[in-house]
Amino acid sequence: MLKVKNLTKKYKDFVAVNNISFTINQGEIVGLLGPNGAGKSTTIKSIIGLLRIDSGHILINEKDHTSIDAKREFAYIPEFPNLYDQLSIWEHIEFIAKAYGKKDYKAIALEYLERFDLIDKKDELTTELSKGMKQKLSIICNLVIDPKIYFFDEPMIGLDPKAIKTLKNLLVELKNQGKAIFISTHLLDSIEHICDQILVMKNGAIITRGSLEELKGTQEISLEELFLQVTQDE
């Protein structure tokens, strides 16, 4: 589904992402962890084509990641939603659905609005929404287009506990539908029990990877404790 080989991204002389490789398969949730400045957001933006890479090879569903065909295969949910001030919640959904050629989207869109407690606000303008509501809308717009792979960059920042639980349940549902999910977050406890694979980055490199069980070994520790242990030891 996603193949990243020898990805390197530099900002002048600074190496933000240093020769990393990994794959994400169909029906798999992969968590990307790391301290601030580790290269997580740069990695995601490089994969989806928002940043030009210096070297490496990236395939999305066997298509070059910069191609139009590849871009039809994925959705990107950034940490800070990019929304239109003068559109309402429902107008955003309509606009995105029509842009992607989706016709039978209304029923599922209404279901998502119900699940994220936005149904009674669907006619409100973006300027009237809180940060958390904007994040919910960004997530819903990308759910409606029904891609094969999702890229989430800190999607839970600003969400209330109920919305975080709703999103976690949706991620598992999407996985069970065969979707591939790549999620970068600092809220480690929110993804601890749903990820099939964990990648930990530091200083632009992947310093450890594997399932949670593989990484913990015989230690009875949380993902947060494991993360601190790995990044400090490194």
Low-confidence stretches: none
Mean pLDDT equals 93
Number of helices: 8
Number of domains: 2
Q: What is the correct CATH architecture of the largest domain?
A: 3-Layer(aba) Sandwich
Q: What percentage of amino acids are in beta strands?
A: 25-35%
CATH superfamily of the largest domain: P-loop containing nucleotide triphosphate hydrolases
CATH topology name of the largest domain, in short, is: Rossmann fold
Q: Largest beta sheet: what is the strand line-up? A: 6-7-8-3-9-10
Shape: globular
C-alpha Rg, in Å?
A: 18 Å
Overall structural class, as computed from helix and strand content, comes to alpha/beta
Textual characterization of the structure:
- The protein has about 230 residues and is of the alpha/beta class.
- The chain folds into 2 domains: about 1-75 and about 145-234, 3-Layer(aba) Sandwich (Rossmann fold), CATH 3.40.50; about 80-145, no CATH class.
- The protein has 8 helices and 10 strands.
- It has helices at about 40-50, 70, 90-100, 105-115, 130-145, 160-175, 210-215, 225-234; strands at about 1-10, 15-25, 30-35, 55-60, 65, 75, 150-155, 180-185, 195-200, 205-210.
- The strands form 2 sheets. Strands 6-7-8-3-9-10 form a 6-stranded mixed sheet, sandwiched between helices.
- β7, α6 (about 160-175) and β8 (about 180-185) form a beta-alpha-beta unit.
- It is globular.
